[in-house]
Specification:
Number of strands: 7
Structural class: alpha/beta
Oligomer: single chain
Helix content: 40-55%
Strand order of the largest sheet: 3-2-1-4-5-6-7
Strand content: 5-15%
Largest sheet: 7 strands, parallel
Length: 281
């Protein structure tokens, strides 16, 4: 059986770097980015240069023709992160997202899986960490910053395409993955004895193999319909963390996501060091 053909945008970025080993093994990949090297200056094998901010989609349409799925990780970032620059850069990201969705739809791609972020519900995070609200679910949108706000809009662009209403009744199925912390360093970087930051680091963790599984199952699961039958889902991208404040119940139910890792087990020794520094047994 031939491999699925998958387009990966933002292929030189951090998130793509976590996913690439598993995706290379499983799919026939087309790798797109505006640069050929990662943030450390290391060239990423197979990347083709494409400016997905260009509104002339004919310049990169050929990359999407015949694809079975798109994994959208591309992100436009500016160095000056002052308020005006940050807001303007997020508007650019919405244009980029529209361009990718539209060309994918025009070329008949069935499904798109997008890298969203847990920051789409940042406003609720502190309340959840304090135990003042229950676990945050994927249907909740509440941000207190432009990055999270833009990701909410980013997700809703996907919902428009999944509905098919504005596109002749033909939907572009899509999954939005609110990625947590795909790093092994968050807990070590938290100030020793700061139990709140420790809890947050434990809550957000996602291992490389769990994130790869989540994206692969989002690409391959036959039916991603929601309760109304709309081919649209938002999943939280975290491991099976005992300290989680975000729910992965729908990812387990809809696509059979079965995370193998738990931050409490993974970082047991570091947890003990934090507890000792805080004077806790």
């Amino acid at each position: 059986m031939p491999k699925r053909r998958v387009v990966l945008t933002g292929a030189s970025g951090t998130i793509a770097g976590v996913l690439l080993p598993a995706l290379r093994e499983r799919y026939d990949l087309t790798l797109l980015d505006s640069r050929a090297s990662d943030r450390h200056g290391v060239e990423v094998d197979g990347v083709q240069i494409a400016d997905l901010l260009d509104k002339d989609r004919d310049r990169y349409r050929h990359h999407f023709a015949g694809a079975d799925a798109v994994v959208h990780c591309a992100y436009f970032r500016v160095q000056d992160q002052g308020d005006d620059a940050y807001f303007s850069s997020e508007l650019e990201n919405l244009q980029l997202t529209y361009n990718v969705y539209q060309v994918a739809w025009e070329e008949g791609v069935r499904r798109l899986v997008a890298a969203s972020t847990n920051h789409a519900a940042d406003l609720l995070e502190n309340y959840a960490l304090d135990g003042r609200v229950p676990m945050v679910t994927p249907d909740q949108n509440a941000s207190d910053n432009w990055y999270g706000w833009a990701k909410i809009a980013f997700e809703q662009i996907g919902q428009v395409y999944a509905s098919g209403v504005t596109h002749g009744g033909r939907p572009l199925e899509n999954v939005q993955i609110r990625i947590g912390g795909p790093r092994e360093t968050d807990l070590a970087d938290a100030p020793l004895g700061d139990l709140r930051k420790m809890r947050r680091a434990l809550a957000v963790y996602i291992s490389q193999r769990d994130m790869s599984q989540l994206f692969i199952k989002s690409i391959e699961s036959e039916d991603i319909g929601d309760d109304l039958g709309l081919p649209f889902q938002i999943f939280y991208g975290i491991s099976a963390n005992s300290h989680a404040i975000w729910s992965i119940a729908n990812a387990r139910r809809v696509i059979g996501y079965a995370p193998q890792d738990n931050s409490e087990d993974r970082f047991f020794d570091l947890i003990q060091a934090h507890m000792k520094a805080a004077g806790k047994s």
